[in-house]
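Worked example

This section walks through a single chain of length 212. The input is the sequence exactly as stored; nothing has been trimmed or padded.
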Amino acid sequence: MTSPTDAEGPRALRAVVLVGPMGAGKSSIGRRLAKTLGVTFRDTDSLIVREHGPITEIFAEHGEPHFRDLEHRAVLEAIAHGGVVALGGGAPLHPGTRDALRAHHVALLTVDAEVVAARIRNQKRPLLNTDDDPVDAWIRIRDARDPIYRDVADATFDTSHGPLSDVVKAIAEWVRTEDPDYAAASAAPAEQTGAEDTDDDPQDEKESDDER
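Given that input, the structure is written out below as C-alpha cells.
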C-alpha cells in the first residue's frame, strides 16, 4: 500500500480514519486520539460546512447525491494529510471513498441503539428528519450501512459504555501495533479541526448536529 504524506513531519503516515453510525462518538474520540498520537485531526463534516455551508441546507437545496460528491472530495482532502480523520456516517457509501480508504487504517466505532438515543434526539440530522421515531430511523440506517462499514474497517471498537479515554487508549494501542511509524510519532500538540470537546462520558456524546 502507498502512504500519503503527513503534514506533521518528514515521515509519511497513513491516516487513521474513524467510520461508523451517527452518534458513535467519531468526532470526540478523533480529537482525543489525535492528541494521543501527536498528529492532526480533521472532521470531514467540518470541512464541508466551512466550504459549502450547513449540511442540512445542502441536502435541502441540492439533494443527497450532490452532498455525497462534496463529501467524497472532503474525504480525499482530509486523508491526504494523514493524521486522524473522522468521517460522516454516510461517507463510506461512495465507492470512490471506499477505494481510497484501503490505503489507510480504518477503525469502526459502534454504539448500542439504547445508548445512542440520548445522543441523537432533537438534533438536526437530515436523514433522521422523517415521520419515524428518530431511533427507529437510526437503526434502519445503521443496519443498512453496517456491511459497508465492516467491509472497509480494519478493527472495531464499541463506544457504548465506559469513558471515552478507554476507547481512545484502545485505538491508539491498535494503531501503534499496526504501524510502527505511529509508535515513533511525536507527542507534540497537533492542529485540531472543530470545537474542543471536554466531556469524557460517551453517553453524553454530542456529534455535529448535521452529521448524516
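What to look for: The chain is about 45% helix and 10% strand.
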